[in-house]
Fold:
Amino acid sequence: MKNNTTRRSFVKRLAAGAVAAAILPKASNAHIKTEILPHEPLTGSFGPNDKIRIAGIGMGIMGFGNIRTALKVPGVELVGVCDLYDGHLEHAKEAFGKDIFTTRSYQEILLRKDVDAVFVCTPDHWHDHISIAALNAGKAVYCEKPMVQHIDEGKAVVEAQRKTGKVLQVGSQRVSSVIVAKAKELYQSGAIGELISAEAWMDRQSANGAWQYSIPTDASEKTVDWNRFIGDAPKRGYDPLRFFRWRNYQDYGTGVGGDLFVHLFSGMHQVLDAQGPELIFATGGLRYWKDGRDVPDIQIALMDYPKTASHPAFNLQMRVNLISGDGGSSINRLVGTEGVLEIGWSDVVLRRSKMDPYVGYGGWDTFNTFTEAQQKDYEKWYKEKHPPLPPQIQEPKEQRWLAPEGYDERLDHHRNFFDCVRNGKMPVEDAVFGFRAAAPSLGANISYFEKKLVKWDAVNMVMK
Structure:
């Protein structure tokens, strides 16, 4: 009974905050100032002996995207790729050169002495296996988010990075963004006062955004290594839908939590130096994409963050919707006592609106219930007691910072990874950071499917 009471009070408290946020008006744009953020261009020249040689493991959308981005960083060279669909291997030769090494076996990639770093861009259920094997083989690892498919896999990846001392970067690229860096600077400067609550959402409205990826016409058991794909997932017969649209299934993916919640967590944790929530409750459902998938297409989560040295206790409301109705949008929103920070993919907006400390009178106030004589006496007393406020407090201000034209935060994330490979430092999103972003996302899935409040110890990285 005690646990049920705790859950009810927790959800009731956060739901009240959601309603309040929905009915309050936004601050007016009395003062608007826009700046373009500076960005350091890529530079550097490296000889053949100084190059970092990479290989891609998993050459789907993220595999090709990451390799193309990585090759823009000076001093990086592609050696080979691994994938379980022959068409991806053939296209890799078309895209990167006919001489690159191709294989269906990631173990063959790890055995190569000319590979310094690997990009793990496989379905989620392979992330921990391949990352740990690569670290133990002496390779640096760039692992797509989420770092693991299940919470109980996280500690093993953290330990493998610690034990081997090799670099592991998790691929939630926004933590390296100039936008997030500016938001962190603003937050730490006290621009919004004391943090009260946070909101984050990432909504989509497209078939591809809902993971309805194209399936090649030559897909078959001959061109697809189905048994190797299955790995430690439940055994079943060949199914091209599950192979090419694996995000739709719990056996291989992590749904909207692991794919999209983790982006929102990563950016917010970087801004706040936050480790994670201690209470997680999620709901949602399969409302539109009734295509055989067994994960929701809308998921809403409410979370409690405890007080730490970097931030006060606060509540987080999070949502991902794969049928948004408005074309889709994404934002992290931090609400403070003196303003709001809105962190998008390409801009950060600061709206300052310091609370009037005076009670005031007139309008919606008990003042209007006084006698006419008392209203006159009160108005006289008030004006003597409370002189007019300065304009900067009376009127809110809005400032906006934009990323430079053509800016790609993935490129900065890759640059950070390769810099760390060269100098031996830990990257901005190491295994600990990656696990602390993945765990509450996966915790939201547990809460949704098991219909319960989840308790997470972010400091020690264990479920309570």
